[in-house]
Design goal:
heterodimer; A: mainly alpha; ABC transporter involved in vitamin B12 uptake, BtuC; two-stranded antiparallel sheet; B: alpha/beta; Rossmann fold; six-stranded mixed β-sheet; four-stranded parallel β-sheet; 43% helix; globular; signal (chain B); Branched-chain amino acid transport system substrate-binding protein (chain B)
Chain lengths: 298, 407
């Protein structure tokens, strides 16, 4: 085993880690502020990829003018907004009724929502998915990192992910809005007494969390076929990462997201057969030693 | 699932009600109806290869004979096996025991195929497997009533290995899906590569349903082999090809070979990413006037061109009904005997002969994915380079380990 090869795999792992980080960040925000274990996250990630795909390939035809197609750059904004609006609908019509009950009800409801969304897309797009032809030329091709040739697109995704994660952390931990959010979940009555609209804040938080999932979906179309099952495969690992990082911990989910992406990457060279389970093995170990997760509060 | 149970109960009630009236002329057709079960993956990774399309294909074959054979109605039942052996065998058992299903087809997925073929044979029912690849079906696991149609991993590997080595691709490495099908595909390809004077430099196994292949591709590239063979299917195959392009793995004397490619995979990938891939195919809609006739009729009903598995279902049902007609009964022994004597030539299968081990030997095709500029329509995706006659494409009967083969 050469050091260079390990470095290469870690770099590839960092790319997968970028997705783990954005997705687990969304889950952490939603769990931290709403106490909902959002199992629909994988389906909403898939939906983000499909908004990009439909926007580029089908929308122009539906509206009768090819100029109305939504390209890749616009999708980075449009997909999170569209999925975020769907999040508003889900929160207002369904999730809201469950806050008073156990976590389990939210988990079951969101799992059901995921199955419905996935089923609908399978009906129309089938399980193999479709190619996404819209990656801008500027992101195509590769660049020499010294120890490996690395596709530009992957560098772009890693940087977007880092920026989004840092931005979110900053917003929640270091701004007044974040302070309201954190206070609103701890003591909603007190915050309401200050004249702040807590239910609206919660709705927007959910929309923001699922918007993050949709953004990850758009980023994924560069390397993975948009397919109705893409989220179902991803979500289980992401949940393991959230548990390792500590449920609801923002910094924990981002750090473990990137870290475990790299661990998984290196495992792929050292012992490829274990690459799929290494995250779950780590989860078991962490739960034994630190039940609240690496960054969780006891 | 529930729907099939209800349909089954209704069908069983109708059948028992109708029995006294038809008992006289239907004596040769058990319970007065010929029932064909399409057992397939309706919702999982292979749903697009078979699924609803296969039910449509079976129905097309039934409609062609006016829905009747020997004056008795023919019915299609279908169910989703979810790629799970327990669900598949439970469904097959219920179909045979309570719904009097006479033949089961498609069976996409090797694990499911082997289990159902065994169960059906114990109950003297014919299975015509068009969807699974494993050669075990006609070797160790062969049965007197199990028929393997359309393709198998031996034929897939043989055609393409010989061709690629002839073109100078002598050293190979594998990226293999880590389960029964992938391993069997790799083993068959290795044997063919060595037989043709090539060498295998390495192999890396990946779990089923992998989204990121970059690591495996770089490992394959590091072996220095000129040919990287993908022993996987469906979504795994499409993601691997897409990322091979991203990392520039192909080019500079290095090429990618897909060992199992369905037309729907090419459609899903797009010609940009898939162009130039060579592979073995069992049916292509645009081969000649006859294949076009079925392909276009299927397109009208299903909205896509048929895969070799879906086309196989059509041909299997059609020829099964022909054999029932000829035998004058739906008794499994009699029908299997007639099928063994027939030469199958239709819109899908060319020069088909059914052997004692259950293998349907027929012409296969060496195909190549077209360049985008050579494609004239949405489904104009493949170019057939040459025909591989059945005897050359499939494992010779003498090498079969099936106990039914006289040695």
């Amino acid at each position: 085993m050469e050091f260079k090869q390990v470095l290469q795999q870690a770099m590839l792992g960092l790319y997968n880690g970028a997705f783990y980080a954005i997705l687990s960040l969304g889950l952490a925000v939603i769990f931290g502020l709403l106490n909902i274990i959002n199992f629909a996250h994988g389906a909403l990630y898939m939906l983000g990829a499909f908004v990009a795909l439909i926007g580029l390939t089908l929308l122009g035809g539906w509206l009768g003018s090819p100029d109305l197609a939504i390209g890749y750059w616009a999708s980075l904004i449009v997909a999170p907004v569209v999925v975020g609006l769907l999040g508003v609908v889900i929160e207002r019509t369904m999730l809201r009724r469950l806050y008073q009950f156990d976590h389990l009800y939210g988990l079951l409801l969101t799992f059901g929502i995921a199955l419905v969304i996935q089923g609908l897309f399978t009906q129309f797009f089938n399980t193999s998915g479709e190619p996404y032809p819209g990656i801008p030329p500027v992101l195509q091709g590769a660049t020499d990192l010294g120890f490996m040739i690395f596709p530009k697109y992957r560098l772009w995704v890693v940087s977007v992910s880092l920026a989004v994660c840092l931005g979110t952390w900053f917003m929640i931990e270091r701004t007044q809005l974040g302070a309201y959010l954190r206070a609103g979940t701890e003591k909603p009555d007190v915050v309401r007494a200050f004249g702040i609209n807590v239910p609206l804040m919660i709705t927007l938080t959910y929309a923001f969390g699922v918007g993050l999932a949709a953004l990850a979906g758009v980023l994924a179309v560069g390397t993975v076929q948009p397919s109705p099952v893409m989220g179902a495969e991803m979500i289980i690992k992401v949940f393991a990462i959230v548990v390792i990082g500590g449920m609801g911990s923002i910094i924990g989910s981002v750090a473990t997201g990137f870290l475990l992406g790299m661990v998984e990457g290196v495992t792929k060279v050292i012992y490829p057969e274990a690459a799929d389970v290494v995250i779950f093995v780590l989860m078991a170990i962490v739960l034994l030693l630190r039940p609240a997760g690496l960054f969780g509060k006891e | 699932m529930k729907k099939t149970v209800i349909c089954g109960l209704v069908a069983a009630l109708c059948a028992s009600a109708a029995l006294p009236a038809t008992a006289a002329d239907g004596a040769k057709i058990s319970d007065g109806v010929v029932r064909i079960g399409v057992l397939t993956d309706m919702s999982g990774v292979y749903a697009q290869v078979g699924g609803k399309g296969s039910v449509i294909a079976a129905q097309m074959a039934v409609d062609e004979v006016g829905g009747k054979v020997l004056g008795m109605p023919v019915e299609i039942v279908s169910a989703d096996h979810q790629n799970k052996v327990d669900i598949a065998t439970a469904t097959a058992r219920q179909w045979i025991d309570t719904q009097k299903v006479d033949m089961i087809t498609e069976l996409l997925n090797s694990g499911v195929g082997i289990a159902v073929q065994k169960l059906a044979s114990e109950k003297k029912r014919i299975t015509i497997n068009t969807g699974a690849g494993s050669t075990a079906l006609t070797n160790k696991e062969c049965t007197p009533y199990g028929i393997h149609y359309a393709y198998d991993v031996f034929a897939l590997a043989k055609g393409v290995a010989a061709e690629v080595i002839k073109d100078g691709g002598k050293d190979w490495t594998f990226i293999t899906a880590d389960y029964a099908f992938g391993q069997s595909l790799e083993a068959n390809a290795r044997a063919q590569i060595e037989k043709n004077g090539g060498t295998v430099k390495g192999s890396v196994k990946h779990p089923l349903n992998t989204a990121d292949f970059s690591s495996y591709l770089l490992q394959a590239q590091a072996t220095g082999a000129h040919v990287i063979a993908l022993a996987n299917a469906g979504g795994d195959f499409t993601n691997a090809v897409k990322q091979a392009k991203e990392f520039g793995v192909v080019g500079g004397g290095r090429s990618l070979v897909g060992l199992l490619i369905f037309i729907t995979d090419i459609k899903a990938l797009g010609l940009d990413a898939a162009q130039g891939l060579k592979f073995t195919e069992g049916y292509y809609w645009d081969y000649d006037a006859q294949t076009r006739k079925f392909g276009e009729a299927f397109m009208k009903r299903a909205g896509s061109m048929p895969t070799m598995s879906q086309a196989g279902v059509y041909s299997a049902v059609k020829n099964y009904l022909k054999a029932v007609e000829k035998a004058g009964t739906d008794d499994a022994d009699a029908v299997r005997a007639v099928l063994g004597e027939m030469t199958i030539n239709d819109e899908v299968i060319r020069n088909g002969k059914l052997r004692a081990d259950g293998r349907l030997v027929h012409d296969m095709y060496l195909a190549q994915v077209k360049e985008p500029k050579a494609s004239k329509g949405a489904w104009d995706l493949e170019q057939i380079l040459r025909v591989i006659p059945g005897e050359q494409a499939y494992q010779p009967l003498a090498e079969s380990t099936c106990t039914l083969v006289k040695k």
